[in-house]
Amino acid sequence: MSSAPSSLTQGSQPASGPHPLLLRIAELRAWLFLVLLLVFFELWARIAYGSTFVFSLSTMQSISIYTVAPLLLALGSTFVIISGGIDLSIGFIMGLSAVVAAHAVNMLGGVMPLFPAMLIGGVVGVAVAIIPGIINGLLISKLRVPPFIGTLGMYGVARGVAFLLAGGTTVPVSNAWFSALGNGRFYGLPVVVIVTVIFLLVMHYILSQTRFGQHTYAIGASEQAALRAGINVGWHTQKLYMLSAICAGIGGVLYAARFTAGAAQAGEPLLLDSIAAVVIGGASLFGGSGSILGTLAGSLVIAVIQFGLVYINVEPFWQFVSVGVVIIVSVLVDQAQRSISGGRRP
After folding, report:
1. Which residues contact 40 (CB under 8 A, 6 or more apart)?
2. Where would you tag: which of 70, 167, 234, 309 has the fewest CB atoms within 10 A of its CB?
3. Which long-range contacts (CB under 8 A, 24 or more apart) does 171-174 make?
4. Comparing C-alpha atoms, which of 236, 228, 257, 272 is closest to residue 77?
5. CB-CB neighbours of 24 under 10 Å
6. 208 and 291 in contact (C-beta within 8 Å)?
7. CA 143 from chain center: how many Å?
8. 36 vs 31, 99, 301, 305, 312, CA distance in Å?
9. Cα pseudo-dihedral 171, 174, 176, 177, rounded to 10
10. Which helix (H) or strand (E) is 186 found in, with range?
11. How far apart are CA 309 and CA 307, in angstroms?
12. Across-strand partners of 186?
C-alpha cells in the first residue's frame, strides 16, 4: 500500500532536477507570451512615438472589447478540447444566434417595451444556438461520429440556415436597450466586457471547482478509465457540446448588440482565433489539460498581437504569421511538457 502513492507521485512529477520549474514555466507560457508582448509594444510606443501602450486607457479598452467575441467562443471550446474533442461549428452557431436575436428583438419591439424585447430576444438567440449543440452531442456521443467530422458538418448546416434567415445580408436592429448592451458603459467599463468577465468567472468555477469539471478532465485523460469510474461519458459529452453552443450563442447576441445588426458570418473569422486561444492557453489537443484562465491569457495574446501590429503600422497580414508562430511554439512547448511529465496531466 505504501508504494502506490510513491509511484503516483513519481509518475506525475519528477523527483529531481529542474523539471518542476520547467513544467511551471510551460504551464504559464501564455501569460509569459502576454507579458513579453506588452513589454515589446510598450518599448516601441515610447521609443517611436513618445507615448505609452500599456498605460493607455483607450488602448486597453480597445483590446478588451476585441477580446470579448473570440473569448466567449473559446470558453466553450476549452471544455470540449479538455475532453479530447473539437467543435468547428461554433463560428456559424454564433452567426445563427446573432441573426435570430436580431429578428427576435425587432419583432418583439413592435409588441412590447424595448427592455423586455431585448431580454427575450437575447434569450431566444441563445436558445436557438442550443439546437445545433444538441445535434453535435448526439452525433458524437450516440452515433460515434468523430468530433471533427460531426461539427464540420454542423458548420455547414448552421452557416446555410443563418444566411437563409438573414436573406443573404445583415439584419439591422432598432432597439436602444439592445444598443446600450453592446456599446454602453458602466462606470467607464464597457458593458460587454463586464458581462464577459462575469461569465468567465462562472465558467472558471464550473471547470475548476465542480464535479462537472472533474469529469471533463477525466474523460479527456482516459475515456475508458472514466467509464470504469462510473462517469456517464455519453451524457457528459452531450452537455459539453451544448455548453459550447451556449457560449457561441451568447457571443452572437453580444455581437448583434455591439453592431446593432445580426450577421450570419459574425463568427467565421473568430473560429480559428478561439481554438488558437485555447491551445496557446495551455490546453492539449490530446485532451486532459487546460484551464479557463489559460484560455483568457491565450485570447489576450491574440488580441494584443493583432491590435499591437496595427498600432505600430505593420501590415495586417503579419497578424496571421505572428499568431501562427505563437500557436506552433505553444504546441511544441505542450509536447515537451508532456514528454517531461511522462504523459497526460490530470
Report:
1. 308
2. 167
3. 171/99, 171/102, 171/103, 171/106, 171/256, 171/261, 171/262, 171/263, 172/102, 172/260, 172/261, 173/102, 173/105, 173/106, 173/256, 173/257, 173/260, 173/261, 173/262, 174/106, 174/109, 174/260
4. 272
5. 9
6. yes
7. 26
8. 9, 39, 10, 11, 16
9. -50
10. strand 185-186
11. 6
12. 189
Question: Cell numbers 476549452 label which residue?
Answer: 78
For β-strands 171-172 and 261-262, DSSP reports them as antiparallel
As a 3-state breakdown, the chain gives helix, strand, coil percent values, each rounded to 5, of 75, 0, 20
Amino acid identity, residue 333? V
Going from the C-alpha of 170 to that of each of 138, 163, 223, 256, the distances in angstroms are 31, 9, 42, 10
Look up residue 259 and give its three cell numbers. 453592431
Nearest to 272 by CA among 87, 136, 130: 87
- Write down the pTM of the prediction: 0.88
Q: How far apart are the first and last CA of the chain?
A: 22
What pLDDT score was predicted for residue 342? 57
Q: What is the DSSP string of 265-296?
A: TTTGGGHHHHHHHHHHTT--TTSS---HHHHH
Q: How far apart are CA 288 and CA 12, in angstroms?
A: 13
pLDDT tens, position by position, 286-323: 888 899 999 999 999 999 998 998 888 887 788 788 88
CB 234 within 8 A of CB 216: no
CB atoms within 10 A of CB 336: 13
Phi and psi, residue 342, nearest 5°: 85, 25
Q: Over the chain, what is the mean pLDDT? A: 88
